[in-house]
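Handout, section B. The chain below has 642 residues.
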Amino acid sequence: MLACLVTLLFSVVVREVLVIVYGPVAWLLLVLLVGVLIWAATALVEAWRRFRRDDPLPSAALRWRITLYAAFLCTAYLVVTPPVRFWQAASITAVLFYGVTLAIQAALPWLRRILPQRLRRMADVTLGNVVLLVVLAEVALQGVAVFWSTPLLVTAQSSGEVRRSADRRAPGTLHVGFPMNERGHYDTEVATARLQRSVLVASIGDSFSYGVVPHARHFTTLAEQRLPDVEIYNMGFPGTGPVDYLHLVQDEAVPLDPDLIVIQLFLGNDLSDTAPETSEPRWYERERYLLPVALERAATLWKVRKSSDDAVPRPADAETEEDPLRHFVWFDDPMLEQPSFPEDIFLGIETRNMVAVCGPDDAIYERFFGNFERILEAVGDIPVAAVLIPSEAQVEDHIWEAVRGASDQPLVRDRPQRELARWFSERGVPFLDLLPVLESVEPLADGRQHVFHLQDTHFNARGNAVSGTELARFVSEILESGPSAQGRTANTTGPRFSRTPAELTLRHGWQEPEPTHLWSDGPVTTFRAQVSGPTDVTMRLDVQPYPDPDAPAQRIAIDLNGSRLEQVVLPPERSTVEIRLPGDRLGPAPAHLAIRYAWTRRPAEHQEGADDMRELAVAWYDISFDRTGEAVGAVAPHAEAP
């Protein structure tokens, strides 16, 4: 019967190996499995012969220990390898266990001949102690996790209370020079604030809400400064997600009777971190055991600490109430900042997050919407709104390109924003999309926005400043118009062109709009267009150079997705210029275009009586796109004209 069971399991493994599991090494594994099957048949024949001769197997106790060691090794192998389906796990483990057990037992006579008894005894004792040590360590960690909340032992299956408590510091503990309040939140006391302000807004989120900047630079604090009668109470906790937000809403936010609850959603991991709290991992999944989880996290922390031994201290290291800006000068100058994580770890985090939320998987969105629906049910009559915080890969082009290169599946850069905007709009939930406004921040000397800490995934002071301004505007609109206010996207630095069939997100290099046109601002203008390949697209530029008879002909250079596309000399009068965007250079993501000008002029420097110090190059009347005569439609909604 055992032989029949092994044969059945072997056939299942063969199918799984060839179709799903091991890919290029499938044939090598099949050879090994065939060997296991032959060895099993041989061992069964030998066992039958011994039974017929009434010749019992020698060293029964040793064989039982070998069976135990084999079971331990095969289970450990299955736990540390990538997750598979249950029947795959069961069949692979059974065949491996049976094969390893037979191999060791069949080799016992040979091992007795070549290994001294002392060495064999030492190996037996060592294996026994290793098994016992691992089992006791796992039991101890499981017990510790019940009574001591620490981020090292928190998993996706930990309860909401445990996950919140893991990073809940004691009252008075300093975080970036600011003492935690009596509830363990990174904010002032809510009772005192409620007496001073007439409106209370509860802000719930993960480490983005918790913050890694001084309290005075945090986006909720900056928003409060623009809303004198509103207290935005920061209730964020690191390492939490939508399941935990539900508990925060029920246990801590609703009892405060706030006028509004704002859920800060970091789209990097809040969408994928939506497993139901009641779900239990299976016996073969790594998340079921704390020992491998703790060892993996400890190794990552050690690597990070080793790589940053000589780096500038991080803001969270400030355990003094002195002004942190005295010690961390890069708050005001991100170009001086040292990275928080090694580049490989940081890119690994960004890639994992983007593959999860920008890939073709719909299941994570279904789970997320289910969790958010429960939040809406839990708040009762209290209005709820959401803020969509993008991942840095969605803002910085160089990180996105690295993520795309590391992914083995197509990614849609702004898919999370599209999916959540549709769902929230259908349910009348106000939402604020921060992606366009963060994309439009004036770049620094290296051409990058620098709104996140360097290789850290969290907002720096620049990101908090922009987000605080938009949050204040968003909260003010909701409080003025009531809970039925619809969601919107944060304003960008310029409007759409009225006659443009393809949506544009104007990033930088634009003046405020005038009745008929829009002036460029400085030597370069950048924008993002919702056009993609694989066929060619014609871009039409309706443009006129700044009128200066003493200046040479204006020349513009067009860059597409970071590389030079074409140079064009403009006539002095208003004209339409057609530029072909090759389809093979248009990826699935929106096209990023930059237009560089040969010269700019300040009207005040050559026009008598003028005091206009703007740097003007050309007046833009329209930018439009078409593909083989058909207008290119919008892929996703963007900001309306301010």
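Note. Residues 117-147 form the longest helix (31 residues). Compare this with the example in section A.
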